[in-house]
Each structure stands twice: as C-alpha cells, then as structure tokens.
Fold each of these.
Amino acid sequence: MGYRWHLDCKGKLSTSPSLTSCIPSIYLSFAIAVVNRSVDLQKGFPFISNCGSYAPQSCIFSQVLNTGAALAIWICIVRYHQLRDWGVKTWQNQLILWSGLLCALGTSIVGNFQEKNQKPTHLVGAFLAFILGNLYFWLQFFLSWWTKGLPQPGPRWIRLLRLSFCSLSTILIVASILPRALNWAKVPFLRVIILYSQRMRSASAACEWAVAMLLFVLFGFFAVDFSSLHGCTLHLEPQLDSSLPQTPTGSSNTPMSQML
C-alpha cells in the first residue's frame, strides 16, 4: 500500500487569494531606487529589473517576487483541483497547471538572478513570468468560453474584464519585448520605428510595468472563483498497489482462535 497527496477544497472561502498586495512592495523598490539614485528618472523611466538590481532595494525586490511566486503556486494548485472537481479533462487541466507553475518559477528566477549579475538567466525568468503567465490566463479564459456547463462564478462582467486584461497584456508584451528583439537584430529600417529606440525606451519600460500589474490583478480575480470555497486541506491518502495481493478488509477483525 502506498500513499499520495490529496487536496480537499470545500465550503465557503472568506479570504482572497489575491496577489495584488505585492504591488505596493514593488513600487517601494522603485521608490528606494529613485531616492538612492540607482535609477535616474531624467534619463527615462526605468524597467522593473533596473529598480531591483542594487541593494538595498534588490533585497526587497527578491523577497516580494519569491513571496509572490509561492502564492502563485498555491493558487495554481487550488485552481487545478477546483477544475478537476468541475470535470475538466486531465490533459487540459495539467496544461493550465504547468503554465502557471512555470510562470511562478520565472517570477522567482527574476527576483533571485538580477539582470546586472546574470542577464541570460534573468531573461529566461522574464520570459517564463510574462509569456507563460499571459498564456496561463488565456488558457483559463478559453476553457471557460468553450466548455459547456462549466461553473461561472461572479457577475458576467468579470468574464469580459478578464478578456480585456488578457488582450491588453498581450498587446503590451508585444510592445515591450518585440522591439528589443528587433533592436538586437540590428535591422536598420526597423530601428526607425521600433519602440525600444532611445527616444521611446521609457514607453517600453512603462509597458513592462503595466503587464506586471495586469498579471497581479488577473491572479487577484481568482478571489471570485474561490468565493465558494471555505478552505483547503492537504493530506495523505492511502493508495492500493494493484501489483500486490490484496488482503480482505475483514481479515484484521478475525479472532485469533479461528486462525489457529
């Protein structure tokens, strides 16, 4: 006999799984970076990574993103079990789960590997956090749109708001990341129009900040979906091994005199 972990979610939830509480802490890192002149606003609006590259704000930046990643993992797991209980197909549910977990992993990588110290690793983390984070919410939206009979907690405008935020997030990601790729490609004609040129660098940075805030808010919207939950219990559940001979349930209650 073996054991497996089982998450049991029931009842009515009074607490919100929102990650929006991380937003003020990120702006705190920005404020400290401005005060100690790690970033110079006269040279343009900084990217998020620039604000978390130097101490002491880098310590706050790492702590906030690691905490946010841990909360995101918990939300993704609870959501996975909720969708499973709603009858969502296993492969669809696992695809959604892994995109969310990789987003959380990328968030932690961004916080722990500052751009000035380990730029390639930092960029990999940013890709996972932004691209797969956006994909995670698109998969959630398409699932709720195409699956008939799937519960739709909350008012109908929440669904439209999610669609708007996902669409806006996608547009801003393209506006922020694609121009950098074009700049690295050193295409002379495209350099004239790309957003990441020195003149428009601040606009690209603002897009990055906006995407981060949108992803935090989209995670916060799960408070609506979890409003029917009271709490979740993680416990070990016995699992029988089919390869081993099974002992009858009543054998343990057989008197010793009958066994002799």
Amino acid sequence: MVENKVHAGLKYSPPKIRTVLVALDYEPSAQHVAETGYTVASALGASLVLMHVVADNVYYSTPEYSPVMGFTGFSSTDITGQVGMADLKVASQDYLNITKHHLGDDNIQTMVIEGDTPQSIIDAAIAVDAGMVVLGSHNRRGLDRMLMGSTAEDVLRKITIPLLVVPTRGKDNDGAL
C-alpha cells in the first residue's frame, strides 16, 4: 500500500532541477525559445544546454528555410542544391555559438546531434541529466502539420521529465513579443 504523505504531515520537497535542455530549430522564433529557456534556467539556478538536431539536410536547402539571429546559412551545397551533412553539423554548431553569444553566458553548453528529432531530444535530455526540456511549438495546421509533424507532441508522448513548450505563433517574423 502506498503511504499518502499529505496525510502523514510531511511537507513536499521539490526535486532540484540542475540542468535545462533547450532544443532549437532554425526558425527565427528560436531566439524567443532560447531566451525563455535561459530565463527559466537562471531562475532555477540550473545550467543550460542548447541543442540542435540535424535531421534532414533537404530542409536546409528549401525556400522554407529562414535564417535566425544573423545566421545566414551554409557555405556549400552539392550539385542538387542540398547541403552536406558535415557542413550542416558545422553550421549548426556555429548557430548554437551565435545563440550562446546572444544570451551572454559562457557557461552555456551546446550540442549538435544527428538523428530523429523527437528521439534525439529525449536521448540528449538523458545524456545531460536534464531536469527539464524547453522547446518551441509552431502550431502548424493541416497539410503543413501532416508533412512536418509536431516535434513537441512527439516529445511529450515519450518524455518523463517536465517539458516546457513555448508557443511561437507570430514570432517567426522578427522574434518580437
């Protein structure tokens, strides 16, 4: 039988969140997600890890790709116009470094992972012993949602630690509130 601590007179003691993992994509709204994650980590006295998942190099070569925080893209493409995976990883690390510089904290850690985005976020959370994950939601609808999926929903279904989903609708144009 499970003892009910409320009735036993014991006071709740919340677990300490020591690390916050912020998963970023290349949408301009990622700046808002990064800033929100940094604010949460600072308030909790936790360390911050910024991550990006390199999942599909085709996306980075499409017109839907849009730069964020001064990051303008990739230096080389192959004959089909696609960016090579090695270049994506280097560019992704550069992007995270720009984001880290924007937040102004040299203690922020960064990581670039190649793989399925939702599972890679969960795996990274385990690897860094994150107590919370922060990511953005683009509120896609219809065909766009069917084609692109919902990373936030996929992570939510599988993750076992707190997940903060930052709504980004309307923030993709200039990052303003």
Amino acid sequence: MLIIRNEDFEQLSVFDQLLPKSCLELKGELAVIDKILDDESLLTPFIEKLNSKCGRPSIPLDTYIRMMYLKFRYNLGYETLCKEVSDSISWKVFCHIPVCAEVPDYTTLAKLTKRFGEDTLEKLNTLILRKALEKKLIKARKIRIDTTVIKSNIHHPTDASLLSDGVKVLTRLVKKVKDAGVAVKSEFQDRTRSVKKRILNIVKFAKNRNNEAKESVRKKVKELVEITKDVLHSANKVLTMAKDEIKKVKNKQRSSKAALIQKLDDAISAVGKIIKQTNEVLKGNTSIPDRIVSIFDQGARPIKRGKAKAEIEFGRKVALAESEEGLIISSHVEEGNPCDKTLAVQMVKKSIDVLNKVPEEVAADRGFYSSENEREIQGLNVKHVAIPKPGKKSEKRLKHERQHWFKRLIRWRAGGEATIGLLKRKYGFGVCLFHGENTGIWVNLSIFSYNVTKLAKLMVQIC
C-alpha cells in the first residue's frame, strides 16, 4: 500500500516536546533542500508507478526521497545510511521520521529503488528542473554536452579470471537448484579447487616476463578451458533434467524454482561465450567484438579513454547535458561504446524536451563534430553551435571558429570536466554498484542528489 507522507511526523510525541526546539529545526543546506523536496508534485511519478491500496504499508514517499538524497550526497551504503539516520536527530527530522520511530530497513529501501526504476527517477529529475525554471532559479540559455564512463563494480578482467568466475557461478547455481529439490539425482563434480590451483600457478608465472613464463601461462589457461568445458557440460545435463522436472511441479514453489533454473540457463550461455572468446585469444585473435568482461555484469564494455591512470575503463558510457547554472539537464546510459558524434543531436533534443524550451547556445568537444550535427542542431532553432572541427581546417572554418562567441563557448565548455569530476568524487558517479539495466537508476539518483544540492546553493545566493 502506497503512503505519500508520514502522518506521525506531523504530530509531536511527548518525548519530542521535551527536546530543545533547536534539535527539531533544520539548519543550513538541509533546511533549504527540505523546502525544495516539500513540493508534493514531485511525488507524482512515484504515485503513477506504484499507486496501490493493497498490501502492507510502504515507506512514506517523502521519507524515501530524502533518504535517497542523503545516500548519494554522502556516498553511503544502504545499511550505513539507515544507521546514520537512526543515530542523528537532524537527519531523522529531515527524512520526516519521528524521533522515537524506527528507521526503515535497508533491504526495503534497496527493493523499492529497483521497483521504481529508471523512468520514475528520470521524471523526478525533469520535474525538479521545470520547477526551477518556473521559479526563475535557472535560465538554461546554454548547454554543454560531454560523455564519461561510469565504471562497473567488477575486478580487472583476464581470460583466466573469467573462466574461474564462470566455474564458481555454475557450481553455486547448480548447488542452489539441487537444494531447491530439482535435479537432485544429476551428477555434478565441484571443480573449484582445481581452478584455484591453476589460477595460483598463473599468478606465479605472470611475475616473470620471459617467453618461458608466457608459454606456461598459456598452458594453464588451456587447462582452465578444458575444466570449464567439463563443468559446462555437467551443468547442461543438470539444466536439462531440471527443465523436465519443473514441468511436473504445480505447487507455490514453482516460480522460485523456475527463476533459479533461468539463472542457471543464463549463466551457461555466458560461460559458453567466455570459452569461445578465450579460444580466440589463444589462437592469437585479440580483437573480439562484444567481448564479455564480467559474468556478473555482461553489459559492461571495455572503453578506451586514453587517461594516464587507466587507459581502459570497464563500464558504460554516459552522455550528459549541463546548463549554464551547472545543473545536469539530461543524461543517457549508452549500450556499448557508440561514437560521441552519434549522441550530439539526441542529447540536444532530450534537453529541449526536459526544459520545454530551446537553448540559445550549445557547446561540445571535437568528438561530437560533424557537419550534419551542426546543421541539425541549428535546425532546432539553436542560435550558436560551438563544436570544434578536428583535423585540418579550411580558411572559412578557421574564420568561423575565431569568432568571439565561438571561443567564449569553447572556454565555457571546458568547465564540464569539473562537473563530471565532482559527480564522481562526491555523488557516487565514479563506480556504479548496480548491475545491468539498473545502471540508469544509479545515474539518475546521483544526478538527483547533485541537482538538488546545486539548486539549494542557487536559492541561498538569490535570497
């Protein structure tokens, strides 16, 4: 059952009345943010998504939104967040939780976040921006576009480690299927110790850089491939037997057992791909399209960024559009690693939809340049488009890029790197702890927390 506001918070208890008034009053940043989030219209996307009068009461929406803000504002885990809110009177007041009441369980917060999904949180960000426009806190006359990589929470992938992970996952899932009472009579040998021995040998050989050590590593990887093939073959037999048995099950446990079998099926498919790509590498072919870099997050891509610290990052590319006031207007998590120039027009159109107005100026780096992009963006009634052309330029192009407005926009565009750095350093944008399609949820919550904090600072400056 959906609860919009915590009615118990409005009524002070006897204990609350004994506390000094200063304890129950919000100060500084939290007071301004509480005022921003107090707008009931911001809850509309959540009500549309989960408007149910059945079932047990959920966390009040105003409490949920405020707790999610604190989580990403201070880079806290769900469990740590609940402990911190429980220990702090001011955070309890901010989250609209009575001082004597218990804080919602962290598992409930996690489940509710996944249930609301990316679309709901994107609508929340859109509403916040439109409210800021209505109150004339922002003008959004110009936007800058850039891309970055949000890393997946995975270890550095090697062929050996991927094979090892595959064997562990298959072994674990087969055990769960058997514990659930399905395919109990099927034969399956645990080969994790054999895999571990070979991984330790590879680590020992990898310390040396000579040809003999490299050949020893290749030999051990081949052994790992054979072990993984055996495990995969056994897992396939378990899967076949489990699918036959599940057809006869008619009780309430059928859905949970079917979900386990589906997980095993997906893992078998992924491990099969890992074996194929490892065989390709052993043959000398290192250029493999759609390479799996983690069995736990199969959508993560190796993205070359050319940075000194990490030349290749493993995760997803995210496109961002930022206003002149420093707010993130729109974002999009990309599948694979598309070229930046394919994203320029898409991000401008998305920003126009969010703001319900056309920006006067658009700036982006040279990776977004194409003559077609310039024409299309100008065709959207954007007055100035500043995207430098890479490579050799004609006299006409040089003259165009030497104009005062063009140079001004290019200088301003460079500030977008600082915003991305701030998002990664303070708002959880550096590493995504969600996997797969849920990356969009993480991105939107991070942007929500950043935008609300930025708006609070703008409100203080104006007042």
Amino acid sequence: MKHLLIRALFLGVCSSAANAQTVDWSGGYIGAQIGGRWTNNDVDTPGWLLTDTSSTSANGFAVGAFAGYNFQYGNFIFGPEVSAIFNPLSDKAYYGTTMVATERSRAVISFNARAGYAFENFLPYVTGGYSRASYSTIQSFDNGYLSDTFSFKRKREGWNVGGGIDWLATEHILLRAEYRYFDFGQFETNTWDTDLKQQTATLGIAYKF
C-alpha cells in the first residue's frame, strides 16, 4: 500500500507538471504591428551669454514588423527579436520670429533580447536592446532681410527598453500589446543640440511556427 501511494503521488506530480507546460511557446514567429509614436525633445541653442532651450514634440501613426525566436525553460520564455517601426515624424522648434528647426525621424530598427514568464496562454515580458534611427534636421532662418536654409542627415545609434504582453490565441496565432522607450543621445549641429528621445505603443499580430 505504501508503494502504491508513493507511485500515485509521483504520477500525480508528473501529471500536474505536464499539464502546467501544455502551452508551447518555443519556436520562431513573425508579425506586424500598428500603433502610435511620439516625441518630446529639448533643443539647446547657445547664445552670447545664455543658452536658449526650446521643446519640440510630435506624435503620429506608426506601422512596423517584428520577428524572433522563443526558447522555453518551464514557464520562463526568453530569446532574441528584431523589429522595425516606420513613421515620418516631424518636430518643430521656434526661436523668436526668425528661426525654425525641423527634425524628421523616418525609421527605427531594433535588435532586442526578451524575457518573460508564461501564465498558460499569456506571456508578460520585458525587452531591451540596441536601436538605430534615421534622422534629418532642417534649419530655416528669415529675418525679413536675409534668409537661408541648412539641412543635416545622420544615422543615430541608441538603446530601447520596454515591456508588453503576448497572448497565444491559437497554436499558431499570437496577439501582442507593447510599449517602448527609445534614447538616441544628443544630435549636435553648428547652431544647436537636440536630445533625441521617442516612445511607441503598438498592437501586433504574429504567426508562430
């Protein structure tokens, strides 16, 4: 009887463990995302005695794509992911009535690591990694007597961090909600310096292989 009880207990534990891991998150996935992207940056313009600081802000519609691979250890899920967000955001800063600075950000590509803990079909996770963005800046000057325009284009490297939740709706269909914060350091020109930061909030759908 003692051996039967031990065997029954062992089988029960194994059965519970197996049931807890019936949701398979492992494998590759590829998907698309849609949402919003916004910025709020400080622009510093050095003067003869003081530095003038102005703010630029913009928000807009964003679309993108993502792909990655999940490794699973029990309920712990982790793996790499690459993503891209596209949206021609345009920010403007005004200095008195003579100067306008316009910044444009068109695309952001990120290479991230993700980690989360699965609750059956739901996977809350954190993410972070390297990002690269395309920025262009246009400065226009017009005081009524003289006018000129200068433009600068640069690739910016930075980092991002965020989090979200995945829902495995079916064996192969995955739904996602995610937030990310991006920092691309300071964009410097001959006449002003700009802190480049932006945020995204997106919803996504993916096919899990």
